[in-house]
């Protein structure tokens, strides 16, 4: 299942639950949150059930945040510390912006 190279074109694996589903029954998932920009992208897939449960809130900047936090390059504690700091900063910024009305 996970990481299987034996991927027939007509079936895809849901990245959330690992279920093999017919391609026609799956939804494309773009980790960058923009399914309409298809250039140089390989999409992952979600089954319909998982797609329904997925948050459809915008997640602009998430990939940048992960890179900035050193995801995959620093150890777990270092990553979590940096990530938490950056998210807190972002949260504080948004909260003070939303007070301006
Ligand atoms: Zn699923």
Helix count, per DSSP? 3
Fraction of residues in helices? 25-40%
Poorly predicted runs are: none
Number of domains: 2
Q: Rough shape?
A: extended
The helix-and-strand class reads alpha+beta
- What strand order characterises the main sheet? 1-2
Rg, Cα atoms, Å: 17 Å
Could you give the distance between the termini? 51 Å
Number of strands: 4
Largest sheet: 2 strands, antiparallel
Organism: Salinirubellus salinus
Protein name: Small CPxCG-related zinc finger protein
InterPro entries: DUF7562
Sum up the structure in keywords:
101 residues, alpha+beta, 2 domains, two-stranded antiparallel sheet, two-stranded antiparallel ribbon, 36% helix, extended, binds zinc ion
3D structure, described in words:
The chain is built from 3 helices and 4 strands, in the order E-E-E-E-H-H-H. Helix content is 36%, strand content 14%. The mean pLDDT is 83. It is α+β, with helices and mostly antiparallel strands. The termini are far apart. It comes from Salinirubellus salinus. This is Small CPxCG-related zinc finger protein.
Question: Layout of SSEs?
Answer:
Layout lengths: L10 E3 L6 E3 L3 E4 L14 E4 H6 L8 H7 L7 H23 L3
Antiparallel strand pairs: 1-2, 3-4
Bound molecules: zinc ion.
Zinc ion binds next to strand 4 and helix 1.
